[in-house]
Amino acid sequence: MSLTLYCRECGWMASDSIQLEEHWKFIHHGFRQPPPNITQKDFDNISNWGLHKQAHTCPVCLDHHTQMVGLAHHISSNHPVRDYFRPMTHTSQILLDHWVQIVHACFGKKIAENIIKGIKHRKCPECRNFFKSTEDCATHIFKEHFKNCQQAMNSETYINWSRYVNLVNPGVLPAMEKHHMDGKKSPRFVLHRQPDIEVLIDSPVMAQQQMAQDLQEELFAQI
Ligand SMILES: [Zn+2]
Ligand SMILES: [Zn+2]
Ligand SMILES: [Zn+2]
After folding, report:
1. Are both 13 and 113 inside the same structural domain?
2. Centre of ligand 1 from the C-alpha of residue 95, in Å
3. Would you place residue 85 in the very low, low, confident or very high pLDDT band (cuts 50, 70, 90)?
4. pTM for the whole structure
5. How many domains does the chain contain in total?
6. CB atoms within 10 A of CB 42
7. How far is ligand 2, taken at its centre, from the CA of residue 165, in Å?
8. Cα 108 → chain centroid
């Protein structure tokens, strides 16, 4: 399988360069796809790729995308389906359908549909409002629905939503959750509470501060 004879817009292999020229002329109105980023060696290996790798690969560019949501967006904005009334569109419906089938097989129907629609990661699981990005949505969630990350972790709705987001948009939530753990709202020093009342204090400075605070409270109580 020679990469130079392969039309990536159609997922079709020409038998020789003359046939490929004809294909470009008649099917693609003379359009020639830019050279691929993939090497011939990788291309030869495609049939051995796992389902996950195939799902994460743009079927036209053959580039790997770490984020499914990003890939769905890339495909919908860069590879519009071929339409004979719009000569600037080139991608074959069959090729895109095949990718959709792979995504279904890889993630299951429900998640696959959400990936393709690219909606759930931007929809607040609590009030169902939509946001421009996963980051905006998570910011809203932590601002409006939960005081901190710990509270969110106790919510089944949040857990289910974050599971999905971590699958299609990895890396975004853990960073935001961490921020809301150590954010401005949380105390500067974390007192590690053991299951049984006891409070452990991390450093002598903290012990001093704690003592000063206790003293102050005591004084105020006496006033
Ligand atoms: Zn083609
Ligand atoms: Zn692409
Ligand atoms: Zn909300």
Report:
1. yes
2. 10
3. confident
4. 0.67
5. 3
6. 14
7. 22
8. 16
